[in-house]
Amino acid sequence: MTSPLCAIVGVGPGVSLAVARRFAREGFSIALMARTLNRVEEYAQLLRDEGAEAHAYQIDVASPASVADAFIQVEERQEAPDVLVYNPSIYREVLPSQLDPEVLVHDFRINAVGALSCVQAVLPTMRTRKTGKILITGGGSALNPLPLHASLGIGKAAVRNLAFSLHAELLPKNIHVGTVTIDGAVSPDTRFNPTDIAEAFWTLYQQPAGQWEREIMFE
């Protein structure tokens, strides 16, 4: 029997790597996906050194064509994901009155639209299997906007709305969509420790049908 596959989009040393380790510990194979292939390959090698099956893929979530191609590669090399984790975001400090509209559109493609592209890439197989988990990293700026984080807050508000809409749409199809909303700065040795946040993602994954939450607030 093959191991289930968790595809993690937007890989860095914090939440996403902690999530990868948490799922790998439970026997999942891992597909790590990010824009910079050399960097994501380092994380894949780190997981392999820890005994996991992990592979790296290049993806530009701002490009639907790149997203589609990346998930084709995942299926060809491993298999279609059982779990999708969407983690990318762009953080920049600029007041909303000074935010260039084109910059906002660029950031929005990564903070929100990329999530939709990735969901649409994995949904056909999940629909066929009649099962699947789609987990999205949210942010507290969706609920408590800060002027300097306007671009990120707009994106996080949108991706939260998208997650809730998908949750309602796909619930009857036995596909669980949920978001972990992190209302604080991720850092070790704080209450926003990546390892603890990863446990919230695992909690969403483990929830049985009939008890699916659409959001866990980490605050």
UniProtKB/TrEMBL annotation:
GO annotation terms (biological process): siderophore biosynthetic process
InterPro entries per the UniProt record, alphabetical: DHB_DH, NAD(P)-bd_dom_sf, SDR_fam
Pfam name, any one: adh_short
GO terms for MF: 2,3-dihydro-2,3-dihydroxybenzoate dehydrogenase activity
Domain of life from the UniProt record: Bacteria
PANTHER family (UniProt xref): OS08G0476300 PROTEIN, OXIDOREDUCTASE, SHORT CHAIN DEHYDROGENASE/REDUCTASE FAMILY (AFU_ORTHOLOGUE AFUA_5G14000)
Name used for this protein in its record: Short-chain dehydrogenase
The organism of origin for this protein: Catalinimonas alkaloidigena
